[in-house]
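Hello again,

I reread your note about wanting to compare the complex against the isolated chains. To keep things tidy I'm splitting this into two emails, and this first one only covers the full assembly. Below are the input lines as submitted, including protein chains and any nucleic acid or small-molecule components. They are followed by the predicted structure of everything together. The single-chain runs will come separately.
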Amino acid sequence: MTHCHDARGPGAHDPAALTVALIGQPNVGKSTVFNMLTGLNQHVGNWPGKTVEQRTGVYRRKGLTLNLVDLPGAYSLTANSEEERIARDYLIRSRPDVAIIVVNAAALERNLYLVAELLALPLRLVVALNMTDVAEQQGIQVEAHVLAAALAAPVVPIVATRNQGVQELVDQAVRLAGGADWKPSRPAIRPEHEPQLTALRELIAGHISHPYPADWVALKLLEGDREIIELARQALPADAWQRVQALLVKHEDAYLDIAGGRYEWIGRMVRAAVARPKAGAITFTDRLDRVATHPVAGLAVLLAMFGLVFWLTYTVATPAAGWLSEQALGWLTGLAQAILAGAPVWLNSLAADGLINGVGTVFTFLPILIVFFTMLGILEDMGYLARAAYVMDRFMHLMGLHGRSFLPLFLGFGCNVPAVMGSRIIEERRARLLTILLAPLVPCTARLAVIAFLAPAFFGGYATLVSWGLVTVNLFVLALAGIAINKLAYRGEHTAFIMELPLYHIPNPRTVALYVWHNTVGFVVKAGTLILIASMAVWALSTLPGRGVEESVLAAFGRWLEPAGRLLGLSDWRMIVALLTSFFAKENTIATLGVLYGSSDVTGALAGQVAAALTPAARLAFLVVVMLFIPCLATTATIRQETRSWRWALASIGLLLVLSLAAGIGVYQVGRLIGW
Amino acid sequence: MGRGGLLHELLALLNDGGLRSTAELARQLGVSEGLVVAMADDLTRRGYLATLDLGCSTACHGCAQHSKTCQMSLISPTRATDQPASQNPAARSADAAR
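Full-complex prediction:
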């Protein structure tokens, strides 16, 4: 049967020619094949009564003429979309002489499903195995002749973009349409469904009219195809329809069996025809993942990665930060003094104490942040961060933290704002709110930068161990809080997630550099705006009424909080004020200390001055509080936005305040008891 | 192969909860990873699974964090395989056609 098309112009069909339908899943190169064959001899319109584009064309070669119809991309013939309905209806009603199915050799498992469905129709089929070049690059070798033998159908390897194999494809299509043997290997239905299929065939016999094949209709009914069910409902007498319905309700999950059977068939085809990939990226990934995704070893690798990041930071970045603090800030201070020699005292003080010592000190973070972001960028681009999420989820799952809560929290390691936003995947409101409350517990890069700045001065050679320990304990606190969420909100319910882990590959230097650049620029913008304003405000409050820092408005406020600070070993009000200003941005802790301690000269002077004012127990307590302290302004605003309630935003602040102070007090008091 | 074939086996594995990689599921089912991905996509189109996008969408515009991990996409079951008949597409079709 041929398709008649009476359009004039370059795409006009020849009624005497063979009709060839091109079908395939989206993005397999079907249209490229169509364009290669038809060139300018094509016509574009819409399918009758539809908004979907219809492309027809003519292929001519040495007395051979083919009318080509480019069907819309379809994943299956189950009419889940307009495109699939059009493709299916055309194949059944118009009965082209032959169909060419274009499949992607690099994703054969996915593409063979449509082949399996097409083989159930009374349709002659040629398989165009496209993108063989892409498959080869991925180490996938499809043996076309083996696949052809397994399918008992012609398979032609092509690279449509290079016009390779396209003429051979046409030859095979013409040969098949001309009457060559056609006895393809079709997926068989599972034996337990044969009785139902037979029963359905008998019930619909004589009622479902041409051109619908009865066998195919029976199969589609069992699969639960809505259109075919409606077709049967209208065509069958009432009693026959009732019996069909009863059968369908009784075997409601038959789709899973039928589709599952097709996938088993696909598995056999792929095992036969896809040669083992060359030793390369895939087997390398597999070998690394035996460790990296192992429930125990994987966690050890992850913790080792954290340790490596901190070690590199202290080895490379801390000396650079020290040089910036010593040389750059010192030079800037001298320059400011020279420029402002005749200026009012307050302006000199603002420049030196407010700006240079405040926001200027934060800029000495840059080496630390650059090392952080470089390490994160490398780990992400090489594919490791996805494994980190996978391993942490397995651990958290064992602890009882629900996956839907953990996964958004994982995003918080860069910044807590995405963690709050990511909670949108949690449908249940209570669980979502509790997850949002926990998000600020995840140590973001800003908090880690503050730790990285202070830890070397506080703990010298033990800085790496202390930092690593703080992050590990933080994760345990997160897990414990998560157990509470699971019991309170999810009531012990579990859900699963499937994640495709990317192959490991050598990180692309440009990708990593761009990642570092974007994150560094983001930090500089934040420093130049929020932290700058906060530094100026702190300077102003620590200057007024003009009798020095110790008698300022800020000092009075800080001393009022000293009793609470003493429980943590923070006898100096400046430490408490520095903690409070971290609400605006975590880095403000350092900017505020810079303003209040007024130091900008020798190496690591600020951190050293702060360390000198505290006992070791108090230093550790301070770092613990920094790790667990209240969310920053951006996170708080996001919590307010996502919960549409100030109550939850304030609850988050309250919860973290209590948690951080309790932890800090606990650490200090225990440290004091053991003589620290 | 157990009851009902590969798709039933896949859904049964997901019933235990937790994050599963396609490689892990492929090993447990004795098939290629590509087949697991194909089946997961099929079940998603059928409504048995749903795709969750962890990305921050427009809220993260301008956020320096913007990264591949931030845009993680996951697939999760929307219903258990032992759900009442009325929740199954085939039975729903039969009910709707009455």
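For quick reference: Residues 6-97 of chain B form a domain with the Arc Repressor Mutant, subunit A fold (CATH 1.10.10.10).

B.
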